[in-house]
Design brief:
- The structure is a single chain.
- The protein starts with a helix and ends with a helix.
- The radius of gyration is 21 Å and the shape is globular.
- Helix content is 37%, strand content 14%.
- It is of the alpha/beta class.
- The structure holds pyridoxal-5'-phosphate (PLP).
- The site of pyridoxal-5'-phosphate has 14 residues, from helix 4.
- Homodimer.
- Keywords: Cytoplasm, Isomerase, Porphyrin biosynthesis, Pyridoxal phosphate.
- One of its GO terms (molecular function) is pyridoxal phosphate binding.
- This is Glutamate-1-semialdehyde 2,1-aminomutase.
């Protein structure tokens, strides 16, 4: 028995499914998840001493590579000053300012501990500010595990959603309208029918949780214009894409160019540098509805934790233009290598791309992937054999076809060569897969 097998067996005696976040259990790819004991640069080391080139990067936070020396030393220095004070600390406004500097329309920032808290607060704030109840979300967009946004079913316009999880009440689900992504007519119909009572649209800046899906040109601007016209707010969820898709998130590739800002943004992943920190930000007039200034309550014992702030400040300070240029270059190179390996096997696919983020989809070349229905219609059975072939070759991919791939500043040419070398055998395995 390998150490990971033993650890997984022990973990299952303690935690449901042996994990603290479901995707880690390898449910959709099968097999035993390697337990990790170390991470440095572009590499992970498992409990059996095997090394992997990491294409998950902690789902985004390892932007500069694992255990980056500047982040490590900032964290060590912060630890020496104390772990948590239960009072305001100087670095909270400093990290907030770094976020403000990069994003349009972020006049105020509130730190929280997880992306889920950020979107939960944004939704409550939008309701409190507008005095309205309904929220529009798009099918296939993930905004964390708050009840009202797990709602996902409901095809067609203004269909009241079914709960996306057991334990979510029908009453909660009914307050969320779930619409197909990239579908302007569906948005227009929802506002025509319910406009007076829609508090906000929440959307991923570019969806990355049904695989990567690119918003059609002008789609986010359309959402901004539509919400503005009807007195609703636009919440742009940049928890995954923020300071990752580009130096100013996916907003930097859309709103910054098209000349619009979201009313509220949510951030997470990258801004904690690997520690648990997230934030919401936006227009002062809306943000000041939060307590203690306004009537919308929100709080957090460890919000703005000094060690996490130090990590986030080091991360954003060292996430220079050169870093994003490097991420783009390595993403381009990887995309080309995937296309070459898949083409050699006659494997039908499309590569979905949003800035430096991308994912692969099988059997989708004709239509492309524009929404959740397209993503679900792909040949998902090809991913598990592809994934396991890569894993055997020492490449750690996201353990689900519906997740984005992440490179880091530490993915040098040597690491990339290891990935390229593993692709042909994995493409063969995917090609041989049977439904
Ligand atoms: C990861 C993610 C969240 C949730 O963040 P957690 O820190 O896991 O709670 C919310 N929105 C998006 C787009 C995400 O990718």
């Amino acid at each position: 028995m390998s150490n990971s097998e033993l650890l997984f067996a022990q973990a299952r005696e303690v935690m449901p499914g042996g994990v603290n976040s479901p995707v880690r259990a390898f449910g959709s790819v099968g097999g035993i998840p390697p337990f990790m004991v170390g991470a440095k640069g572009a590499y992970l080391t498992d409990a059996d001493g095997k090394e992997y080139v990491d294409l998950v990067c902690s789902w985004g936070p390892a932007l500069l590579g694992h255990s980056h020396p500047e982040i490590q030393s900032a964290v060590h220095a912060a630890v020496d000053h104390g772990l948590s004070f239960g009072a305001s600390t100087p670095d909270e406004a400093k990290l907030g300012q770094l976020i403000k500097d990069r994003m349009g329309g972020v006049e105020r920032v509130r730190m929280v501990s997880t992306g889920t808290e950020a979107t939960m607060t944004a939704v409550r704030l939008a309701r409190g500010y507008t005095g309205r109840e309904l929220i529009i979300k798009f099918s296939g967009c993930y905004h964390g595990h708050l009840d009202s946004l797990l709602a996902d079913a409901g095809s067609g316009v203004a269909t009241l959603a079914l709960p996306g999880s057991a334990g979510v009440t029908a009453a909660t689900a009914a307050e969320t309208l779930v619409l197909p992504y990239n579908d302007r007519a569906a948005v227009e119909t929802a506002f025509a029918e319910h406009g007076e009572n829609i508090a906000a649209i929440i959307t991923e800046s570019a969806p990355c949780n049904m695989g990567v899906v690119t918003p059609e040109e002008g789609f986010n601007k359309f959402l901004k214009d539509t919400t503005a016209k009807h007195g609703a707010l636009l919440i742009v969820d940049e928890v995954l894409t923020g300071f990752r898709a580009s130096s100013s998130g996916y907003w930097g590739l859309t709103g910054k160019i098209e000349g619009w800002n979201a009313d509220l943004y949510t951030f997470g992943k990258v801004i904690g540098g690997g520690l648990p920190t997230a934030a919401l930000g936006g227009r002062a007039e809306v943000m000041d509805y939060l307590a203690p200034l306004g009537p919308v309550y929100q709080a957090g014992t460890l919000s703005g934790n000094p060690v996490a702030m130090a990590a986030g400040i080091a991360q954003l300070t060292h996430a220079t233009d050169d870093v994003y240029t490097h991420l783009t270059k390595q993403s381009d190179a990887l995309q080309e290598a995937i296309i070459e390996a898949f083409t050699a096997e006659g494997l039908d696919h499309s590569i979905q791309r949003a800035g430096t983020l991308f994912s692969v989809a099988f059997g989708t070349s004709e239509k492309g992937v524009h929404n959740y229905a397209d993503a679900q219609a792909q040949e998902t059975f090809r991913y598990a054999p592809f994934f396991h072939s890569m894993l055997d070759s020492g490449i750690y991919l996201p353990p689900s076809v519906f997740e984005a791939w992440f490179v880091s500043a530490a993915h040098d040419d040597a690491a990339m060569e290891k990935i390229f070398a593993a692709l042909p055998a994995a493409a063969k395995a995917a090609s041989a897969a049977k439904a």
